[in-house]
Specification:
about 575 residues, 2 domains, ATP binding, Rossmann fold, cell membrane, alpha/beta, 10 strands, about 60% helix, ABC transporter involved in vitamin B12 uptake, BtuC, four-stranded antiparallel beta sheet, binds adenosine-5'-triphosphate, about 10% strand
Length: about 575
């Protein structure tokens, strides 16, 4: 585990222990009882935050997953299964996983309102089923047996808090893993995530499965908390309210889940004491969710921002570790002998149509091993379409694409990326919530901290602990390039990497791109409008116009050809004028 992960896990343990001790030691028994409900709700909210806040999908059936966990615990209690409540709660979580995966399956095709309707329909169906079958032990008033050590209400608070801590620690570690970064990546752009080799179906299903597991745990804990359960505890309305609170509080963060748990538990208590109807709470939660979505900041994020500025004002040391400084680039990929092995990438008679528009027709091109090849052409010539087809982002095309002799037809984008075809985009699609280092881990798993730091220094990006949202647009383009080359694929396809760069930066980038084959062992296909960059980086270029190849060869010769000058008339005149 990295030092930064260890520090944040330790901080989580200390804060939870201090807060738990304060509640346990200072509050009267009734408030400790309420605090237990806060903690149990916070556990469920953490699971919901994973799917909604992190992975960006809508799930309106969190309490149904909790109901599965609670039902399982009730049943294990009735049959007096071995292991007692701690084991039953975990089994309750596991029982909810298949339901989570089943609900995740529509998420592979549906988004937004359609996914919301599917998850809501599941919650409604679960309502009906629960009302019919009742909870085990409900009719005979058989209470769920708590462990002896945690039998009292105060003891059960500690029991629930231990589960909260375990879930928070697990999610904290997960958020720093490649899967955690993949959740953020699919929320930001599924296409860009696939281009990094992330499997979208697997990532979405993992989010739903983990979320359902956590909800199942919370349901099982609720069974032990209340003793006996009724179907209203897990109704569709409860799921809707939980979703609103998760959106408002920012349940993807541990403190957001606790804020949400306090709102869900203590607000109804306040309304009860004021003699106001409970529905007022749900209306306010909905308004709070709208406010959070409109402002783009959840309550937990506001809290973090204020705490950070307070830390700066008080001059306290921040816990962020200093970036490791290294000079060792990752070793280049094992390069095949170019003469013996043939070209890295061969495209033969590629054709693409968008309805009646012929975007590419009979385009053939090859990228020899260890070279940088340019693909240029005026706007609308078909360059991005070419990259989309090669990297697997078009549903269909004519012709063939071969990587090191292997045909890629039929393979989806993430598999092509894993095989060694990596791309960047015309506009950067890096999730802004990630740190620079986490993005590099996502794009190129397995790099050591020293190698990450060296790649970033080489391309001219800030240190790994810098947040992407604090980085300017031009530098994010460089990070795009760093991500693809650090993975050391067979070939990288760079789509206008100099967009947003100054003239000097573009020339520097040209030198870096020319170094890619030697330093990383990857061949390069460069799409670019900046002719100085093309001249500086490429050994061969192919020129397209209206979807067809009009010239190819060494840059100096090809750029002088009349047909190319004609296609580039506007640009040629600009260059002459300059
Ligand atoms: N999704 C689409 N639907 C219909 N037509 C499209 C689509 N995408 C691109 N085209 C058309 O295909 C042709 C090639 O577009 P493409 O974006 O590949 O060109 P380009 O060379 O990358 O242009 P630029 O340099 O401006 O990025 C253009 O005529 C464009 O209008």
């Amino acid at each position: 585990m990295k030092r930064a992960d260890l520090t944040s896990c330790l901080a989580l343990v200390v804060v939870t222990a201090v807060a738990g001790l304060a509640v346990y030691g200072l509050l009267p028994a009734y408030w400790v009882f309420l605090a237990t409900a806060v903690v149990i709700t916070a556990i469920s909210l953490q699971g919901l935050g994973l799917v909604t806040g992190r992975a960006g999908m809508i799930a309106l059936c969190q309490m149904s997953f909790a109901g599965v966990g609670a039902w399982t615990v009730g049943w294990l209690n009735v049959i007096e299964a071995p292991g007692g409540l701690p084991v039953w709660v975990v089994l309750g979580g596991l029982a909810a996983v298949p339901f989570g995966v089943a609900i995740g399956l529509p998420a592979l095709r549906l988004r937004g309102i359609n996914l919301a309707i599917v998850t809501l329909a599941f919650a409604a169906a679960f309502d009906v089923i629960l009302a019919t079958i009742t909870f085990p032990g409900q009719t005979s008033f058989l209470s769920v047996a708590r462990p002896d050590l945690f039998d009292s209400d105060e003891g059960y608070f500690v029991f629930a808090l231990l589960f909260y801590l375990a879930v928070a620690l697990g999610l904290s570690v997960l958020s720093r893993s490649r899967l955690g970064s993949a959740f953020l990546a699919i929320r930001h752009s599924e296409r860009a995530a696939a281009a990094l080799g992330v499997s979208i179906p697997l990532t979405k299903l993992s989010a739903f499965a983990i979320s359902a597991f956590i909800a199942g745990l919370s349901g099982g804990l609720l069974a032990g908390y209340l003793g006996t359960l009724v179907s209203e505890n897990f109704s569709m309305m409860q799921s809707l309210a939980l979703f609103a609170v998760a959106t408002m509080a920012g349940a993807q963060l541990a403190e957001g889940a606790i804020i949400g748990g306090m709102l869900v538990t203590l607000f109804p208590e306040l309304l009860r004491r004021l003699g106001l109807p409970q529905d007022v709470g749900n209306v306010l939660f909905a308004l709070g969710a709208v406010q959070a979505l409109a402002s783009g900041e959840t309550m937990a994020e506001t809290l973090r921002r204020n705490l950070a500025s307070l830390t700066v004002k008080l001059g306290l040391p921040r816990f962020a570790p200093s970036a490791p400084v290294g000079t060792v680039l990752p070793p280049p990929r094992n390069r095949r002998d170019p003469a013996a092995a043939g070209p890295t990438l061969v495209i033969d008679r590629l054709g693409v149509r968008y309805g009646q528009v012929v975007a590419l027709s009979n385009v053939s091109l090859s990228v020899p091993a260890g070279t940088v090849v340019g693909l240029i052409g005026p706007n609308g010539a078909g360059k991005s379409t070419f990259i989309d087809a090669v990297t697997g982002f078009l549903p269909a095309y004519e012709g063939s694409v071969r990587l090191e002799g292997r045909p890629l037809e039929g393979l989806p984008a993430h598999e092509r990326a894993r095989l060694g075809v990596r791309r960047t985009w015309q506009t950067t699609r890096i999730p802004p919530d990630l740190s620079v280092g986490a993005y590099l881990d996502l794009a190129a798993p397995g790099l050591s901290p020293e190698e990450s730091a060296a790649v970033l220094t080489w391309i001219g990006c800030p240190s790994p602990d810098t947040l992407v949202q604090a980085v300017d647009a031009g530098t994010r383009r460089l990070l795009d390039v760093a991500g693809v080359v650090a993975a050391r694929p067979a070939v990288v396809l760079l789509d206008e990497p100099a967009a947003g760069q100054s003239y000097d930066q573009a020339l520097r980038l040209a030198r870096r791109i020319a170094e890619i084959p030697r330093l990383f062992g990857s061949s390069v296909l460069l799409v670019e409008h900046d002719m100085d960059l093309v001249r500086g980086a490429c050994s061969q270029i192919t020129v397209c116009d209206f979807g067809q190849v009009i010239a190819s060869g060494p840059p100096m010769r090809v750029l002088e050809e009349p047909v190319v000058k004609k296609a580039y008339l506007g640009i040629a005149l600009e260059e002459d004028a300059a």
